[in-house]
Amino acid sequence: MQPLTIIHKRNLFIYYSLFIFAIFFIALHLFDIVHLTHNYTLYIIVNVLLIGFLLYKKVHARIVQIFLILAWNILLIALTIESGQLLFVFSFLYLLLIVNVYQSHVINTLLAIITAVEIAFLVIYMQSNINITHPVESFIFLTSFLCIIGLLQTVYVKKLWSHEEKRNMEKQLELSSTEAYLKLFFDHAEDAMAVFDLNNKIIEVNAAFEKMYGWTKEECIGQSIQLVAPEYVEAAHNRFLKLLQGERFRLLETKDMRKDGSIFDAQISLAPIYNSYGDMLAVSVIARDISYLKENEKLALQSEKLKLAGEIAAGVAHEIRNPMTVVSGFIQMMNEDQQSPYQAYTGIIQSEIERIDLIISEFLVLSKPLAEQKSTLDLSEILQDIATFFELQLEQCQIQLIQHFNRNSLFIYANNNQIKQVFINIVKNAIEAIEKDGTITLICQNDERFAYIKISDTGEGIPQHLIDYVFEPFYTTKATGTGLGMMISNKIIREHGGVILIESEEHIGTTITIKIPLQN
Description:
15 helices; 4 domains
């Protein structure tokens, strides 16, 4: 459908043609070439003024269009009947010519049919009333008029088309530039971008999408690919249905899935795409990997908890340890009396006091930064020392220790006591997780920058929903645990520039990986 602004411009052209046509025939009347009554002349003037008024008031372009065509037809029919000369029937052909400006097949076809009927009617009606006066002059004037109007129309149309072509070229250049900028933005954006059709199939993706999700453009186009974690599929489907209803989603946090099946935290924005008529064409998706942000938030929270635990530890060490030392001394004295009927109780009390002292000692590790007494250590020797340290206990518990690491030196820059404490904590936890006849595997690997120590056990494992709490203060699944061992181990490794990773499956076992930098 043509825009109303274009129809309005074409209405102006038709009106100017009508205006010139009216002046021309009024001139014929004044030169006595065509005889017109005053009523007819007045009719012509009123029609011209009325349509001019409609154009001036910017009445709807379609209504003005109908008025113009009707006015032309009535004017030509009345002129032919009034003059009594069939010669003016050729003026209908001129009307058909200028109406082509509308470039409408419907208008041209209807007007051609109506004109054929009008000419047939005029020929039949005027057969007995033909009154030809000044036939030569009329023919010359009419021919001249058609030639002049045709020439003016050609000049006007040429000028109009040149103007429109220039505007179209400018718009095309502007559109091309806009598309080029949008293409550059789309291709080089850091965020992953994708466009889906209304059937949830991919239309286009950018380079960042390929990098983030692992799918190439060739694999994606025309396909419906699962990009969310399995547990989020239903939620993603509901979001898509809401998108089709015109809703938008901004900075929504979810878990997406790469081609290899790995899950990552993502922040996505979704919005429908419309054309100029308001019809929905597609759906856009902009995604950002926020895994590192989540990790930073987790580390910040962990740091806050460590700080809080340290503050508590300082208070506990000051307020409890001194009086507990006094209590412990008296209990030891009472416990040395072999004749005391309370010796069994004092022994239990002494054991519990020692446990409290252990808790306070662990608290003290949290209450101050770790000592910077670092030196160059041979990691292989440390691991061998740990294996030797637990040899007797492993034999008593009927647990087999499997070692997979070479005896070549791997040097790290660390605090010897702290690093040993980490390995002792982890191996001790592994032993306690195995009821009997289990296996602990100790693996050490390395690359150019890091050493990777994996300690695996065949114990009961940790439920998936509890893994995130392992490094929490005071969290433990053991009846006699303090819940500080893994938290302290994590703090030690992090302050040595490393990281501890936990993988566990319930009733199968746990693998703890310690990643620590090698000495340059």
